[in-house]
Design goal:
Elements: H1 7-30, H2 35-53, H3 61-75, H4 78-88, H5 100-123, H6 125-149, E1 156-157, E2 165-166, E3 169-170, H7 172-187, H8 192-212, E4 217-218, H9 230-250, H10 297-311, H11 315-335
Antiparallel strand pairs: 1-4, 2-3
Length: 340
């Protein structure tokens, strides 16, 4: 007897398949084939429809879709809309390759704002501001240090990075440290070591893509993957783990942790700003034990990042990235299966 996939897995699988149709259309457009536009026009809206009601294909589909759409719209919050914008800004990249710096920065800003809005709504503005400040400053600091000294990532340079930059570092990089670490910490259930590992697996795809776009260039003699040495990935794990540790101290309940009312990292002057005790948000229909949250950014990136590598002519790197991030998702699911 064959086990049937869960409704959520079925919806996601069908939605990603529809996105694959749109992606194939983008490849055709790049090859000068007009048919590609029709595939894009079909695949994009179909992916949204299937994400809502892909598990209800059949006579009940129209009713289930309309009910779930109404439910989703009623519960949509600003952070959800910003996550959708972040994903939407990735779609035009293959049709406007020279606009990658603009679209990449805009997408990262949208994801960063989504992360800020998510924490603000769930844990309050003080914690949201502190988490953004910590991640941005730490991320900027390690990138300035790393690009100038080779520690902690190895020998690399931002000399060819497109504007805007801050202290020689592309602005999207420290913004990314906040948003990416937040989604990894949510996905890990508040386990800093696992959040750091998820960040490291993410970087497996970022390295070949961003070096292809000349955001940074490696000149490390021990380069192993897209010019990056093993030291780089250990550095990503360490920095990601450190930022995630601060996040869990600032807002433990945000990640489902059962800790004293005020965690170690919360300064005395912020204690008048309590966290929300009962988050009421939902990105997809259903009321499981664990409410969907900002972790949704990781599987979205697991789809688009390998796709971007295919578009820049790196199919092997795309396959490795897909396997690595897929393994990260599977590990996080297994480790956190008994949470809450």
């Amino acid at each position: 007897m064959t086990a049937r996939p869960s409704p959520t897995l079925l919806r996601f699988g069908l939605a990603f398949a529809a996105l694959g149709v749109a992606f194939a259309g983008a490849l055709l457009v790049m090859a000068g084939q007009g048919l590609g536009w029709a595939l894009i026009a079909l695949g994009l809206p179909l992916s949204g429809v299937l994400a809502l009601a892909g598990d209800a294909l059949g006579p009940q589909f129209a009713r289930v879709f309309s009910e779930r759409l109404a439910d989703l719209l009623a519960q949509t919050r600003p952070w959800m809309a910003l996550v959708a914008l972040y994903a939407a800004l990735k779609i035009p990249v293959p049709l406007w390759p020279e606009g990658f710096p603009v679209l990449g920065l805009a997408s990262t800003v949208a994801l960063c704002l989504a992360a800020l809005a998510f924490v603000w709504e769930r844990a309050g503005g003080v914690r949201a501001g502190l988490m953004l400040a910590v991640a941005f400053l730490v991320g900027l600091g390690v990138e300035v240090l790393g690009s100038r000294t080779g520690f902690p990532f190895g020998a690399y340079s931002y000399a060819t990075a497109p504007a805007p930059t801050l202290l020689g570092v592309p602005l999207m990089v420290p913004l990314g440290w906040f948003a990416l670490t937040l989604t990894a910490t949510c996905l890990s259930g508040g386990r800093p070591w696992l959040a750091g590992l998820l960040m490291m697996l993410w970087d497996i795809g970022l390295e070949p893509l961003m070096t292809a776009q000349r955001y940074w260039l490696w000149h490390d003699p021990l380069g192993l993957w897209a010019g990056a040495p093993v030291q780089n990935f250990l550095g990503w794990w360490a920095v990601g783990t450190g930022i995630a540790w601060v996040f869990t101290g600032l807002a433990p309940r945000l990640f489902g942790l059962r800790t004293p009312e005020w965690a170690w990292a919360l300064p005395w002057w912020a204690r008048a700003f309590p966290e929300s005790r009962e988050p009421r948000l939902s990105l997809l229909p259903g009321r499981g034990r664990r409410a969907p949250d900002f972790r949704v950014a990781y599987p979205i990136e697991a789809f688009f990042l390998p796709g971007g590598l295919v578009l820049v002519g790196r199919p092997l790197e795309a396959a490795v990235t897909l396997v690595a991030m897929g393994a990260g998702l599977a590990l996080a699911r297994r480790v956190t299966r008994h949470d809450r």
